[in-house]
Specification:
two-stranded antiparallel ribbon; 2 strands; 65% helix; 1% strand
């Protein structure tokens, strides 16, 4: 039985699935069951250090026995997060959780809409289920920003207004650099005005932060940028980038040497085939998924909770692509994000800093990159000969058509 056939049988229960999932999650928040929200603590507690000059020396030592967590985002992020420090911790954590849940629903609903399945019950069903998959679960547990950024990007990339598109990407990149890969979407769809606006918006975030703290801005952009080891343990199982997977396979950090560059080149070529097919088919969801998967694969650090882009990837492979390879890909995503394999591998490794490990753990540690690559292959193959089709809620002037 395919995912769509299974879904049709449980769609009537969608409000119950959603309601019980949300209540279960909120109960975990209330009783703090594995809900330390350490990343939210970093955002909240470190941001005032922007005004003392100690933003990048600050460390969160609570709940992090192997690695005292630093603030790793651009200075503009600290400006945005400062209001969190004005309210009690309880208010901050509850507000962030409710915002993240709303963004998960919006990301799911928008992905379904782009896949041609804009049904409120379907959005409720999938949102309820997605609350419990590993990338979303860890994003919620850590109080991470991933769902907020993904919702911002999906919502603005398909806007009919160039400045809104560009502003969304530029601001997201100003908060956390990795969303800058979204600019590739503008280039392949020839939306050059939006691309220019994204550069302007990003420059605005940099400029604002420079006015607030020139010294910290210079420190970040000229000294800290590119230092992946400062962000965390590159070889830990939680790093699901190509660099992380290859480092675990070879037993040492490959850094940005020939092996890494070859892997990036291969990912770029595969992305090129997938984007060519997606653009030809005018499949907006496939374009967005392809661009974001490239970013996750080639980034030095892609923690497992960064892979919330599995949500639109699964929606595309389940609903937009009617092909046996797409069905395989959909089940692969369900197995990858529903199995909590990364959590198992984290418990199995002796330390987050130890890279060598048994070959079978190294092989299992490829799970997200492997399914990401499979998705790119599926997009390239499935859309290669598909005639252009109308796509729900996308720019009407896409590619000048």
């Amino acid at each position: 039985m395919g995912l769509r056939a299974l879904e049709s049988r449980v769609l009537v229960l969608a409000p119950w699935v959603f309601g019980l999932s949300v209540l279960g999650h909120l109960a975990m928040v209330a009783f703090q069951t594995k809900m330390t929200m350490v990343d939210l603590m970093v955002y909240r507690n470190a941001s005032p250090e922007l005004f003392t000059g100690g933003l990048y020396e600050w460390r969160l030592k609570e709940f992090s026995d192997q690695f005292a967590l630093p603030f790793t985002y651009p200075p503009f992020s600290a400006i945005v997060f400062v209001p969190l420090s004005w309210v009690p911790w309880g208010v901050a954590r509850w507000s962030w959780q409710l915002l993240s849940l709303a963004c998960l629903w919006y990301l799911t609903k928008k992905s379904l809409s782009l896949a041609g399945r804009d049904d409120p019950r379907r959005a409720l069903l999938w949102t309820g289920l997605f609350i419990w998959v590993e990338p979303v679960r860890t994003t919620l547990n850590y109080g991470q920003i991933n769902l907020v950024l993904a919702a911002l990007l999906v919502g603005t990339l398909v806007s009919a207004t160039a400045w809104k598109q560009g502003a969304g990407v530029g601001i997201a990149a100003g908060l956390k650099l990795t969303p800058a890969i979204s600019g590739l979407y503008f280039l392949v769809t020839r939306q050059y005005k939006a691309a220019v606006w994204s550069v302007v918006a990003f420059a605005g975030t940099v400029g604002l932060a420079w006015v607030v703290s020139p010294r910290l801005s210079a420190e970040y952009w000229f000294h800290l940028l590119g230092d992946a080891t400062r962000v965390g343990p590159v070889g830990s199982a939680i790093n699901q980038s190509l660099r992380g997977a290859l480092s675990r396979t070879l037993g040492h950090d490959i850094q940005t040497g020939p092996v890494f560059l070859a892997a990036v080149a291969a990912a770029a070529v595969l992305t090129g085939f997938a984007l060519h097919a997606a653009v030809k088919a005018r499949d907006v969801l496939a374009m967005i998924v392809t661009v974001q998967l490239l970013g996750l694969l080639v980034s030095p650090i892609s923690w497992s909770h960064h892979w919330v882009w599995a949500v639109p990837a699964l929606m595309w492979s389940t609903y937009r692509a009617r092909h046996v390879l797409a069905t395989v890909t959909a089940f692969a995503w369900v197995a990858a994000i529903g199995s909590y394999l990364i959590s198992f591998l984290l418990n199995a490794q002796p330390s987050i800093w130890v890279i060598p490990r048994p070959w079978y753990y190294s092989a299992l540690g490829w799970v997200y990159p492997a399914v990401g690559v499979l998705t790119l292959v599926t997009i390239a193959v499935v859309l290669r000969r598909r005639s252009p089709e109308p796509v729900v809620e996308h720019r009407v002037d896409l590619l000048g058509q």
